[in-house]
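For the sake of clarity, the format in which proteins appear in this thesis is described at this point. The fold follows as a row of integers, each naming the local backbone shape at the matching residue. One such record is shown here in full, so that the layout can be seen directly:
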Amino acid sequence: MTHTVTDSPDPSVTDHVRRYLATDGRDGFLEGGTTNLVLTTVGRRTGVRRRTGLFFGRDGDRLVLVASGSAAGRAEFPQWYRNLRATPEAEVQVEADRFRVRARVAEGTEYQRLWEQMRRQAPVYGHYARLAVRPIPVVVLERVEEQL
């Protein structure tokens, strides 16, 4: 079954996602100095499936994302994060592995631990945090189905 998917309005992100998908991550998995995945969410207002590439970390079997957005200091959260808050179910591709996930926002000590882990993995997050107008959310993705 084929579903229409809208890619990021940022041409560099669209290029990254398309290279990643065309090569099962061989081109794009390690980019920007860290690991990347492709996340497909459902638009909170439109219902349109939206796709983007993101840095990610691992916490056991779970995947970890930082909702910093591509522009540090922006007042609004990134679209993918707002979409996940409205509809926590999404699709992920990590290299050739495609599966469904359920998202939740980390809080308390889990947030602190995962934030520090991601800041060490991708030091750019420290820069974003200094410019942020509010705390930067950390999102945990848990697999709900093995394969797509």
About this structure: The two ends are 11 Å apart (CA to CA).
